[in-house]
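Quick one:
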Amino acid sequence: MPRLFAMIALLLVTPAAAAPLVIAHRGASGDRPEHTIAAYRLAIEQGADFIEPDLVVTKDGVLVARHENEISGTTDVAARPEFASRRTTKTIDGALVQGWFTEDFTLAELKTLRARERLPQLRPANTAFDGSEAIPTFDEVLALVEQTGRRVGIYPEIKHGSYFAKLGLAVEPRLLASLERQLYTQNSDRVFIQSFEVGNLMALRRRTKLRLVQLIGDEGGPADRPKLRYRDMVTPAGLKAIARYADGVGLAKALIVPRLPDGRSGQPTRVVADAHLAGLQVHVWTFRAENYFLSPQFQRGNPTARGDMAGEVRQFVKLGVDGVFTDHPAEAVRALR
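Output:
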């Protein structure tokens, strides 16, 4: 009986576990063209805890929100004859990429472009918004967060950090300066800074108290560490090494629930438990509602139709993840709350 009373007392004083964070991946990008003010605003209205802008740099050193510095897939630049001569081929993180790049445009020039849906075959409804939005600066995204009627966090990703640093357009000092102007400086602030690279996070650890997240894919490795593989980073030893400079890891779904050759889900790995043992939060990417992106057990209908994303989210929540990146924040919020 005393043991029973002790257990009841423990339950009464132990706070309930916080619901996993809903991180709006590029805004509500399942319902609006990604990385636009409209997508971020909708995500906030839908109840996202954080919005996630990917950051690249203009020729004149301004941070703007684009998934990549190559912008032909997300803007109308290819249809603009005045910029036809800017089309070029570059090596980005070891891969040849052809198109138009933010670092070859001033902010004023980029502001003449208009955003468009990146996945029109899967998200035809989003094409109705093509041409209605400009490319936002990071400062404009921060201003939107400040104007919102509820508390929402910001989760910026540094894109191609070492590449931009070699051009003299380093993302990191510009990012910190923008955040500091909005008084984001402390570990308790609603900010996570994320990167697939390692060196920039290590350098940021020495410069800021803001929370840092090491992104880890299910194949390849960090662009700035050619000999390091992502698979090695999710071993117990690898996660302990990450904990020396980061507060969390952003993991590809397949690192937690592997995909079998037939597309079905395999047995969950130990990576979430191992990360927690190392003192790291675990945020997982990316949850998308279209059947094309879902495991067979969660698909409902044709590839472009929406399946049971809520079921997939709950599958990962049961495994203990602390946050989910999603293109469909409204559906994730409903699944969790």
